[in-house]
């Protein structure tokens, strides 16, 4: 589904990703862990299409197509979703209006008809219930004055509504209490199926107590230095990142 | 030498207005002895002592009306408009008595003159001037308009207004249903001079609203000059809302002079939405005549192409315990240009004044321009006043966020622009008018 080959990315001429390789097959959940500054968020942002990141080498293909060549909106329309670490507050745009526009934009790109108001209402009701969000948030301006947890819940709502093929969660767990964390995990687990993949970017292991990944990768200094199964995450939780950093330094 | 040239040019302009007045006067058979006629003459004679503003005047620094003043303006005459056209200009869902003016002339057949809501009364100005109950006030209002020493346009309006109206809200009447005045510019093949005149008198403890919409028939690409005069007297503890949604043709020059006088404990709210016009200049001012008043000014401007929209506002806080709240937001794109000059004076006696003013603009192209000047002059020491002016672009991280959910770049930008202006529009208490304004804005952003 997603294939990243030797990806090198700079921000303002500073190398952040330095030859990253990753293959995600349909239905798989991959977790990328790593210490601060290792390039985790850069990877998430490059996949989403943020422009301030300069790809200097390598390739990213999504379902056989060059992802890096796609516009931001095109990526979303083709089924790539990024749950933001810091969702933007947009005063004046009601959450409901935004969600309807997003759902219809993605439907239109898939050659489907716009949802009728009544069906849209039903869908919104169903998915807000799924993420445990109060309906009254729909009438409020997008993310404006939402708490950290409410913002993340809203990200999960968007993911549930847009039903992406690949969802990238960029430190969605950061700043969340245990209840909010469980909701994020619950939504991911409900949406998990043989055709949908997830890339979970996180600093801590605790989200992985609730979402069991198929593969865990450790990113250090812009490269994946170790891959394993869920036990790797536990080892990191237990022993910290120093030992992988040490191994990585030796390997260089 | 340049001064001489200027004077010569305006002498010619003035002469044209004078001869236009002579033609107009000639057609006023049998109305020459009416009190309105005396005021009209005073209006045209005002040109003897007043000049047209030039860009040398500080308050006209950015706005020139010369293009319009060079036009061979003609008096307007009846143009046939069918009911279906007018229905198309109604505000969906607004339960209101409609008054229809085409090129400034009343269309009796298309108007609900017999359905003016209870508690309100609508009188032709000339009739009001002979009505014992109001004639004193009305002639004072018109006289003050003639003597406006900021610009000669209100005097010209009095001289030329065809079907001016007085709207009375009776004391203690709380009128929920507004009067909707539909102003329509219809092409006549000549540049017409349109002079909408509205005087509002509200009695003590009353509440009411008037909604004015300005539209042009398709094909009205002929230039015209809409010279609006609105004066509102808000009685003791009365609350009045004035809405104006201006969607004139791209060839129109629009000048408006709107002045409110407020008695104690009253509220005056003005909602101006400017979407149309080539050159638009609004002079909005309020004079406070009692304590504990509230004045709300909400304004939206959206200039594209080479539209030019200039808003001048003035609130004179002369008495204590009064509040004013002013929010103007606009978007300038293409070669569009906006001007905001918001003056608030808080005089020495006006203790406990709360004055808030905010002007924010989005400038979306390199060739668009916004000039803003918040002007607060505070002479009292126990007041709360704040003002702010911002000029910026759309927040790119917001655009990115919306696009990352599948919205196209264009959709994302339109949504953000709408949201930016909605901040102002959402303050309109009449839902139907709010929705209508939103729809027009959305349409224009597309």
Automatic annotation (TrEMBL), chain A:
SMART domains listed in its UniProt record: AAA (SM00382)
Keyword terms: ATP-binding, Nucleotide-binding
A GO molecular-function annotation: ATP hydrolysis activity
Annotated Gene Ontology cellular component terms: cytoplasm
Xref: Pfam families: ABC_tran
Signal peptide segment: none
Domain of life, source organism: Bacteria
UniProt-listed InterPro entries: AAA+_ATPase, ABC_transporter-like_ATP-bd, ABC_transporter-like_CS, FeS-cluster_ATPase_SufC, P-loop_NTPase
PROSITE patterns named in the record: ABC_TRANSPORTER_1, ABC_TRANSPORTER_2
ABC transporter domain sequence ranges: 2-246
Family the entry assigns: Belongs to the ABC transporter superfamily. Ycf16 family.
PANTHER family: ABC TRANSPORTER I FAMILY MEMBER 6, CHLOROPLASTIC
Protein name per its UniProtKB record: Fe-S cluster assembly ATPase SufC
Species this protein is from: Flavilitoribacter nigricans (strain ATCC 23147 / DSM 23189 / NBRC 102662 / NCIMB 1420 / SS-2) (Lewinella nigricans)
Gene transcribed to yield this protein: sufC
TrEMBL record, chain B:
Gene: sufD
Any Gene Ontology biological process: iron-sulfur cluster assembly
Superkingdom field: Bacteria
All copies of domain SUF system FeS cluster assembly SufBD core, residue ranges: 194-420
Protein name (record): Fe-S cluster assembly protein SufD
Start and end residues of each SUF system FeS cluster assembly SufBD N-terminal domain: 14-181
Organism encoding this protein: Flavilitoribacter nigricans (strain ATCC 23147 / DSM 23189 / NBRC 102662 / NCIMB 1420 / SS-2)
SUPFAM superfamilies linked to this entry: Stabilizer of iron transporter SufD
Cross-referenced InterPro entries: Fe-S_cluster_assembly_SufBD (IPR055346), SUF_FeS_clus_asmbl_SufBD_core (IPR000825), SUF_FeS_clus_asmbl_SufBD_sf (IPR037284), SUF_FeS_clus_asmbl_SufD (IPR011542), SufBD_N (IPR045595)
The family this protein is said to belong to: Belongs to the iron-sulfur cluster assembly SufBD family.
């Amino acid at each position: 589904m997603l294939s990243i080959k030797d990806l090198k990315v700079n921000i303002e001429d500073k190398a952040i990703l330095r030859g990253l390789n990753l293959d995600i097959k349909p239905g798989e959940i991959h977790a990328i862990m790593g210490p601060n500054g290792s390039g985790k968020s850069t990877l998430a942002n490059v996949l989403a299409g943020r422009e301030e990141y300069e790809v200097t080498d390598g390739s990213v293909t999504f379902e056989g197509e060059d992802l890096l060549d796609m516009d931001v909106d095109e990526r979303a329309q083709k089924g790539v979703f990024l749950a933001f670490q810091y969702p933007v507050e947009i005063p004046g745009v009601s959450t409901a209006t935004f969600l309807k526009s997003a759902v219809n934009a993605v439907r239109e790109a898939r050659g489907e008809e716009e949802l009728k108001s009544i069906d849209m209402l039903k869908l919104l009701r169903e998915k807000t219930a799924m993420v445990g969000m109060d309906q009254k948030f729909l009438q409020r301006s997008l993310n404006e004055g939402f708490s950290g947890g409410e913002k993340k819940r809203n990200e999960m709502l968007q993911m549930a509504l847009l039903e992406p093929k690949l969802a990238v969660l960029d430190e969605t767990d950061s700043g969340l209490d245990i209840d909010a964390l469980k909701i994020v995990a619950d939504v991911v687990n409900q949406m998990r199926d043989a055709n949908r993949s997830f890339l979970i970017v996180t600093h801590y292991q605790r989200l992985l107590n609730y979402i069991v990944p198929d593969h865990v990768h450790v990113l250090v200094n812009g490269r994946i230095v170790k891959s394993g199964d869920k036990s790797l995450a536990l080892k990191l939780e237990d022993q910290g990142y120093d030992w992988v950093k040490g191994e990585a330094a030796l390997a260089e | 030498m340049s001064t001489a040239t200027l004077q010569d040019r305006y002498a010619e302009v003035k002469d044209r207005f004078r001869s236009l007045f002579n033609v107009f006067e000639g057609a006023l058979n049998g109305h020459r002895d009416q009190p309105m006629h005396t005021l009209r003459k005073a209006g045209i004679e005002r040109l003897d002592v007043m000049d047209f503003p030039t860009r040398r005047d500080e308050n006209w620094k950015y706005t020139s009306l010369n293009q319009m003043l060079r036009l061979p303006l003609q008096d307007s005459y009846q143009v046939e408009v069918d009911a279906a056209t007018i229905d198309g200009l109604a505000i969906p869902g607004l339960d209101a008595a409609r008054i229809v003016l085409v090129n400034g002339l009343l269309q009796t057949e298309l108007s609900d003159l017999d359905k003016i809501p209870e508690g309100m009364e609508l009188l032709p100005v000339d009739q009001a001037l002979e009505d014992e109950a109001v004639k004193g006030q009305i002639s004072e209002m018109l006289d003050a308009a003639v003597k406006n020493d900021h610009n000669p346009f209100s005097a010209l309006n009095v001289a030329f207004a065809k079907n001016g109206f007085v709207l009375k809200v009776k004391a203690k009447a709380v009128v929920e249903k507004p009067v909707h005045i539909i102003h329509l510019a219809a092409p006549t093949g000549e540049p017409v001079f349109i002079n909408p005149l509205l005087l509002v008198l509200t009695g003590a403890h009353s509440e009411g609203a008037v909604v004015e919409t300005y539209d042009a028939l398709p094909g009205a690409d002929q230039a015209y000059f809409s010279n609006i005069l609105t004066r509102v007297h808000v009685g003791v503890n009365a609350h009045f809302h004035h809405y104006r949604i201006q969607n004139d043709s791209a060839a129109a020059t629009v000048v408006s002079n709107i002045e409110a006088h407020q008695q104690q404990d009253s509220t005056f709210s003005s909602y101006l939405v400017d979407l149309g016009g080539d050159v638009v200049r609004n002079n909005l001012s309020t004079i406070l005549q009692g304590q504990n008043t509230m004045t709300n000014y909400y304004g939206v401007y959206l200039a594209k192409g080479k539209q030019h929209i200039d808003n001048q506002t003035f609130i004179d806080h002369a008495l204590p315990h009064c509040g004013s709240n002013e929010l103007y937001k606009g978007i300038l794109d293409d070669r569009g240009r906006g001007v905001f000059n918001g003056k608030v004076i808080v005089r020495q006696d006006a203790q406990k004044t709360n004055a808030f003013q905010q002007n924010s603009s989005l400038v979306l192209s390199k060739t668009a321009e916004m000039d803003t000047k918040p002007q607060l002059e505070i002479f009292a020491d126990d007041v709360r006043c704040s003002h702010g002016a911002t000029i910026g672009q759309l927040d790119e991280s917001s655009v990115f966020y919306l696009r990352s959910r599948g919205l196209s770049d264009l959709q994302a930008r339109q949504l953000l622009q709408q949201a930016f202006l909605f901040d102002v529009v959402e303050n309109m208490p009449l839902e139907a008018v709010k929705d209508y304004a939103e729809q027009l804005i959305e349409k224009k952003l597309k």
